[in-house]
């Protein structure tokens, strides 16, 4: 299946293995707060839940741990990532169904799931509304879609502030935009859900702080692979990356250092035929 998104695990960083480990650490960093958000939006035991763009399966594993009675399905376009998901989830726990497909063409039947999660996927798509209409199709009436994504204008913040981080995120945004993505999509999620036909739109910010989660969790979830690739691709000056590295190390040496990162989550409900968007 062709991958038309701006994310390709083989190109985005120096090493596929390193990038997959980063993806796992990224799920770990937000897992507790994220599961709380899903429950507030309506996830509960017994639901049929689909993770669209499931990647190597880390979120599916977290969902299974949070609610063992969920009927979980993961869909991803990349056979390599699905293979890793099979390996991760073949651990004797409840069975998870894994399918090759995309969020635009899931292959799932009409009105077959109760709750959809799509995490850090829409920012990489050229037509996110088309993807959300597919989500709408597979949801049962009153089903809930939760879309979690980034906004790189409000990404990692530090104390003390490191000015070169701003340069890094501008470079990342240019790179993703040139490949057809939208790296500041977080602020647009409610409007996109409404355009795709969802009602009862809700919005939440899922955040993590290094003084609470621990610095190791942040360091595992960031890494240097993407900045180095941005230098190689000509989006970031190597001298800027060198200054960023120096500033980052100086920040970490301070006892009062802080790193804050946030994700943006929007939820919408598929209305019954007699209902209308509100």
What does it look like?
This protein is α/β, with parallel strands linked by helices. It contains ten helices and eight strands. Strands 1, 2, 3, 4, 5, 6, 7 and 8 form an eight-stranded mixed β-sheet that branches. The longest helix is centred in the first third of the chain and has 26 residues, at 16-41. The protein is globular, with a radius of gyration of 19 Å. It starts with 15 loop residues before the first helix and ends in a 9-residue tail after the last strand.
Annotate the secondary structure layout.
Layout: H1 16-41, E1 48-52, H2 58-66, E2 71-76, H3 79-89, E3 97-100, E4 113-119, H4 128-138, E5 139-149, E6 157-159, H5 163-178, H6 189-195, E7 199-209, H7 210-213, H8 215-222, H9 225-232, H10 238-253, E8 258-269
Parallel strand pairs: 1-2, 1-4, 2-3, 4-5
Antiparallel strand pairs: 5-8, 6-8, 7-8
Helix pairs in contact: 1-2, 1-8, 5-10
Nutshell version of this structure?
By secondary structure, this protein is α/β, with parallel strands linked by helices.
Please name the defining characteristics of this protein.
278 residues, alpha/beta, 10 helices, 8 strands, 21% strand, globular
- Report the average pLDDT across residues: 91
Q: How far apart are the termini?
A: 37 Å
List low-pLDDT spans. Answer: none
Query: What pattern of helices and strands is seen along the backbone?
Result: HEHEHEEHEEHHEHHHHE
SS-based class: alpha/beta
Number of strands: 8
Sum up the overall morphology in one term. globular
Task: Report the helical percentage.
Answer: 40-55%
Biggest sheet, open or closed, and with what strands and sense? 8 strands, mixed
Number of helices: 10
* Global Rg: 19 Å
- What portion of residues belong to β-strands? 15-25%
